[in-house]
């Protein structure tokens, strides 16, 4: 690979999170993911971390944010489905036709 090609190719970096940490994040409830995300952001904002520690906090924060957003998206989809179902049955709500 030429010097020119290597400068434009993104560097591949190893993850600082272990498989078990990723699995734990993937099963975290929303509140726990949110709280740990807040802690990661606070650690970054406080400063005083070396580059490796900063990158780990960043990667942890990204994984936690993704988990929290996934859970919020799932709840939004359930609410949208419930609202659509309610709208579909609104015309017959409270009538004998609704009981058939």
Task: Characterize this entry briefly.
The protein is mainly alpha-helical and 100 residues long. 74% of the residues lie in helices and 0% in strands. The chain has 5 helices and no strands.
Structural notes for this entry:
- This is Exodeoxyribonuclease 7 small subunit.
- By secondary structure, the chain is mainly α.
- The chain has one domain.
- Helix content is 74%, strand content 0%.
- It contains five helices and no strands.
Q: Could you describe the largest sheet, including whether it forms a barrel?
A: none
How many angstroms does the end-to-end distance come to? 72 Å
The helix-and-strand class reads mainly alpha
pLDDT averaged over residues? 85
Listing every helix as H and every strand as E from the N terminus to the C terminus, the arrangement reads: HHHHH
Task: Indicate the percent of residues in helices.
Answer: over 70%
**What would the principal axes of the Cα set say about the shape?**
elongated
Low-confidence stretches: 1-11
How large is the count of helical segments?
Answer: 5
Strand percentage lies at: under 5%
User: Radius of gyration from the CA trace?
Assistant: 23 Å
Please report the total strand number as a whole number: 0
Oligomeric description of these chains: single chain
What's the structural domain tally?
1
Subcellular location: Cytoplasm
Family: Belongs to the XseB family.
Keywords: Coiled coil, Cytoplasm, Exonuclease, Hydrolase, Nuclease
GO molecular function: exodeoxyribonuclease VII activity
């Amino acid at each position: 690979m030429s010097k020119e090609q290597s400068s434009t190719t993104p560097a591949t970096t190893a993850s600082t999170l272990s498989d078990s940490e990723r699995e734990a994040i993937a099963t975290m409830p929303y509140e726990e993911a949110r709280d740990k995300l807040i802690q990661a952001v606070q650690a970054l904002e406080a400063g005083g971390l070396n580059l490796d520690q900063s990158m780990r906090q960043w990667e942890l924060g990204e994984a936690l944010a993704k988990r929290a957003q996934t859970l919020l998206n799932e709840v939004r989809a359930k609410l949208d489905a419930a609202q659509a179902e309610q709208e579909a049955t609104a015309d017959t709500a409270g009538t004998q036709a609704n009981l058939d």
